[in-house]
Each structure stands twice: as C-alpha cells, then as structure tokens.
Specification:
By secondary structure, this protein is an all-alpha fold. The chain is 62% helix and 0% strand. The chain is built from eight helices and no strands.
C-alpha cells in the first residue's frame, strides 16, 4: 500500500505556487509541536515532583488513584495502578517523555502518537471519566488530538522524513 501526500498544486495567475499548498503540507506541525511539548513537560513535571511519586500523601499518585477509583470507567485499571503507585507514576512519566521526544523529533512518529493516544485514553477512562460535563475533562480532547498524528505520522520536518528520504536514495526511488 502506498501512502502519499497531496500532489495537486494551485498556481496563481502570475505563475507562483499558492500559499495554501504549503499551509496544507504543514498543517499538522503546530499540533505536533503542542502535543510534543505538552507531553514532554508533563513527564518532566511528574519526575521532578517529589510528592507525586509517592504511595500516599498530598499530591501523590497513590492518593489520586484512590480518589478516582470508584468514579472511573475501568476500576480494574485503577486497581492495577494501585498495586504499585510509584511504579505506575514512573511508567506514566517515562511514557510521556518518550512520546513527547518522539513527537517533537518526528522519530517513529506514528508509534509516539499511538503511545500518546493510549496514555490519554487510559487517563480519560480513569482520572477524568467523572468530569461533568464530559468536555471539562481534557484527556478526551488530547486523545482526539493524537489521532491525526497516528494516521499521518510526521511527513515533514522530522527524522522519519530524513530516514525515508535516505532509504529512497539507497533503493533508487523505490520504497
């Protein structure tokens, strides 16, 4: 299966390319930067917060998980996290770091976006599930924001694009 980008080009009456072509090609870049920076910051914030990585206490991951357990959509997922709250906290923080770095660099971008979507899905089903109305919980919006990047990857300004270009040159233009 071949995946490509739009190839039709708008030409102005003066013979120049239309700005809409470039805007369309770069449309996902602001989303990629926002999600990458946000997840990188979220991971670093958790890792540097001494209270978060504890089993109990104000601001701890353990107390947060116990507080949302009965209102979550999947209490079994919360129970799994409560078996080792600091371990779960580190897993989430390191996952967010990996997703943020992969998204910003455009390295394994679809995989990074899938990781971001799965983190957002798990947080929506547990932590923000009880938000009423539902649009007050931001994890659902993050989940939806990741989906275009899961589908499209990072075709421009990315390490994936550099690697793809090198492969094409090595194979004579074939994938």
């Amino acid at each position: 299966m071949t995946h490509g980008m739009r190839t039709d080009v708008h030409i102005s009456p003066e013979g120049r390319r239309d700005w809409r072509d470039d805007a369309g090609r770069y449309a996902l870049l602001p989303l990629r930067i926002f999600l990458g920076v946000t997840f990188l910051y979220a991971g670093l914030d958790k890792l540097t917060d001494s209270a978060f990585m504890k089993d109990a206490g104000a601001g701890s991951v353990g107390d947060m998980m116990r507080a949302v357990r009965d209102s979550s959509a999947v209490p079994a997922l919360v129970d799994l996290a409560l078996k080792n709250p600091p371990g779960f906290g580190y897993a989430i923080a390191l996952g967010e770091l990996a997703v943020g770095i992969g998204t910003l660099l455009g390295l394994l971008a679809r995989l990074a976006a899938l990781g971001g979507a799965l983190i957002s899905l798990s947080l929506w089903l547990t932590v923000s599930w009880a938000s009423d109305p539902y649009y007050y919980g931001n994890d659902l919006a993050y989940l939806m924001a990741w989906l275009p990047l899961v589908l499209a990857g990072a075709p421009l300004l990315s390490l994936d694009a550099v690697l793809r270009s090198r492969r094409r040159r090595r194979t004579g233009g074939y994938r």
